[in-house]
Automatic annotation (TrEMBL):
Residues 57-309 form the Glycosyl hydrolase family 92 N-terminal domain. It holds the Pfam family Glyco_hydro_92. Residues 1-27 form the signal peptide. GO terms for cellular component: cytosol; nucleus. Residues 315-564 form the Glycosyl hydrolase family domain. Keywords: Signal. This is Glycoside hydrolase family 92 protein. Transmembrane segments: none annotated. One of its GO terms (biological process) is carbohydrate metabolic process. The keyword Signal applies. SUPFAM superfamilies: Six-hairpin glycosidases.
Length: 578
């Protein structure tokens, strides 16, 4: 099913921006990043066997410019947390290389590689500040705290992210699945201040939330509701965070309080206030609020432990305790690199016989192929609360992944593939249809090709991998046979399609709704999904369905026009004829 995106830029605009952009932009990562990658590959080419650190071959900046929409943030494989800075302008994944954009803050939740213009997440931004005039003079709002980076000093690698502000404050992060550490290094002699922002996320979708400061424990807890990002619909999701400020007692909190501001000049601060709770603005105003705090003296370095959860504040704190505990930044980073090496070492190449830039591209791509979807198992809400099955969020749209990402995963990671297939089936168990493009708890449809691929590859191992093939097949049949009330968000426009043998334009539907769009593309997609159902029907000997789905899988012919010629080819899919 096509992604519903009313805000996609026109191709023309896209090309125009790309041209302007490439003319005006300097390379942003520290030039040393590329030098180190090339040197590591050269050294590995010379080495005579033994341990290879594949994380050194990965360039996490590939795709962070020219609308690549990927996140170079610190993450573990399939991590729910991806620490990155959030930048102004077009920055759907938080970070972009464009040096003319400013940094809003560092935050734990991001998506990588999604096609959403407005972006996703960016909740719980923290920004280190110097406030020479004291607490009441701190620049807390988004507009006043934004700063340029120190150009060409960005550094990131698997499990590590760092960026330096133009005032020389260094921000670093490393992560576990649902938690991590943020580390800030200040110029000498400065009192460290921090602003924490509860309401501003990247797409500006705040829908109510609350924050509490416990100055004795040195802990700030917060959470609320935000609007789901890519994909259709008006859905909210909940998210929570827990910030531990004292680094196991090594740091002393000084001032603390609440701030609130807006773009019309509100700039209020409440020293020693510890609680704030705001609803969504029903007249469309932009609320900005959060916490502001400082440390005793002028310590150069401050480390803050962060846990997140989609369940509760208590669970966000528990995640930080169980996943980070008292570990140091170096320990968490080393663990993350270990996890990445397990993934990356699944593909071994002839390093000596491969050009350095190809090695870099292979391992950088393999890195990206284990970054998303986000493993939110145990972090479920809404219909999926308390599910006993794995839960993955930020599922890429199926038409992007069924012949690329998942076939690759089928080759190198059947266990992980099975967990994701179980997530698709769980969508059917809880929602009635399998998900697609699911982000922030949205429903969806169209997982047939993906779960079908699994069934064909792994039917002998399915039970051992936790997949019941009959259940998988029932989920496919639901997509194929059951008409949903709204096929924009789940299922298919199935009755019109089976009645005509294609999806007609301008069809009077009195029992369901959905946007009248992309009828030709949907015909192809439905037919291909029907082919997947047919293959699994054959596999499982579902004799009643085999002929029916064989027939339906040939419906693509109904949009085939053998007379159309173009570019020396004859015979095209012609969506005009339907
Ligand atoms: C690799 O080996 C070659 C030949 O032995 C040598 O010239 C080169 O300096 C070595 N490079 C590295 C990065 O060790
Ligand atoms: C970084 O480079 C951009 C683009 O050239 C420029 O606008 C900005 O002022 C520079 N930032 C600093 C801190 O020099
Ligand atoms: C915030 O206030 C709302 C009512 O406006 C209430 O429903 C909610 O429970 C409060 N949340 C917290 C964490 O205090
Ligand atoms: C690698 O570099 C060579 C030489 O500059 C170039 O011809 C080739 O296209 C590059 N390959 C990739 C994958 O970038
Ligand atoms: C997802 O997280 C769960 C819970 O920690 C874990 O059991 C599972 O192996 C993880 N899966 C992947 C693919 O990371
Ligand atoms: C498939 O099912 C049919 C009846 O539905 C049965 O006659 C046939 O033996 C089955 N074939 C296999 C290979 O199990
Ligand atoms: C195939 O589908 C078409 C269109 O729905 C229908 O007219 C035809 O009877 C079907 N053929 C079989 C063998 O099911």
């Amino acid at each position: 099913m096509p992604r519903i995106s009313s805000s996609a830029p026109s191709l023309f605009l896209f090309l125009q921006c790309a041209v302007l952009w490439s003319a005006s932009v300097n390379a942003q990562p520290d030039p040393q990043v590329q030098k180190d990658i090339t040197a590591a590959i050269k050294a590995a080419q010379n080495s005579t066997g033994g341990h290879v650190d594949y994380t050194k071959f990965v360039n996490v900046y590939i795709g962070t410019d020219n609308f690549g929409d990927v996140c170079p943030g610190a993450s573990v494989p399939f991590g729910m947390v991806k620490f990155s800075t959030d930048l102004t302008g077009y920055a759907p994944a938080g970070y972009v290389t464009d040096p003319t954009q400013k940094i809003r803050g560092l935050s734990p939740l991001h998506d990588s590689g999604t096609g959403s213009n407005l972006g996703t997440y960016g909740n719980f931004e923290i920004m280190p500040l110097m406030c020479p005039g004291g607490f009441n003079t701190c620049t807390t709002t988004l507009q006043t705290r934004e700063r340029f980076r120190k150009n060409n000093t960005d550094v990131a690698s698997p499990g590590y992210f760092a960026q330096t502000l133009d005032n020389d404050i260094l921000m670093e992060a490393t992560s576990t699945r649902r938690a991590g550490l943020e580390r800030f290094t200040f110029p000498k002699g400065q009192k460290p201040y921090f602003v924490l922002d509860l309401s501003n996320d990247l797409p500006n979708s705040f829908a109510g939330g609350a924050l509490d400061i416990d100055p004795v424990k040195g802990r700030i807890t917060m959470g609320g509701q935000w609007g789901s990002s890519f994909g259709p619909g008006r859905f909210n999701y909940q998210a929570f965070a827990c910030f531990d400020l004292l680094n196991g007692g090594k740091q002393k909190l000084d001032e603390y309080g609440i701030w609130s501001g807006n773009t019309n000049g509100l700039d209020a601060k409440g020293l020693h206030q510890t609680h704030i709770n705001r609803t969504r603005s029903l007249i469309g105003d932009q609320y900005q609020f959060g916490a502001l705090f400082s440390y005793v003296g002028s310590p150069r370095q401050i480390t803050i432990r962060v846990g997140v959860s989609f369940v509760s504040e208590a669970q966000a704190c528990a995640n930080a305790e169980s996943e980070v505990g008292g570990s140091s930044f170096a320990e968490i980073e080393a663990k993350s690199k270990l996890l990445w090496n397990e993934k990356l070492s699944k593909v071994e190449i002839d390093l000596k016989g491969t050009p350095e830039n190809v090695t870099e591209l292979i391992y950088s791509s393999l890195y990206r192929a284990s970054l998303t979807p986000n493993n939110a198992t145990g972090e479920t809400q809404g219909l999926f609360a308390e599910t006993t099955h794995p839960y993955f969020d930020s599922l890429y749209c199926s038409w992007d992944t069924y012949r690329t990402y998942y076939p690759l995963m089928a080759l190198h990671s059947p266990v992980e593939f099975a967990q994701i297939v179980d997530t698709y089936i769980d969508g059917w168990r809880k929602n009635g249809w399998m998900p697609e493009c699911r982000a922030n708890n949205l429903p969806g449809s169209s997982g047939d090709n993906i779960v079908g691929h699994f069934a064909i590859n792994y039917h002998n191992e399915a039970a051992a991998l936790g997949i019941d093939l009959n259940e998988l097949y029932s989920a496919m049949l639901a997509d194929g046979d059951l008409k949903p009330p709204q096929w924009d968000v789940q299922g298919r426009e199935v009755d019109a399609y089976t009645q005509y043998g294609y999806v007609p334009f301008s069809f009077l539907d009195v029992t369901g709704s959905g946007r009248q769009t992309r009828e030709g593309s949907r015909t192809l997609e439905y037919a291909f999904e029907d082919f997947a159902i047919r293959q699994v029907a054959l596999l499982l000997n579902k004799t009643d369905d085999i002929a029916r789905y064989t027939n339906r899988s040939l419906f693509y012919r109904n949009v085939w026009d053998p007379s159309v010629k173009s570019d020396g080819f004859q015979g095209m899919l012609n969506f005009e004829i339907v």
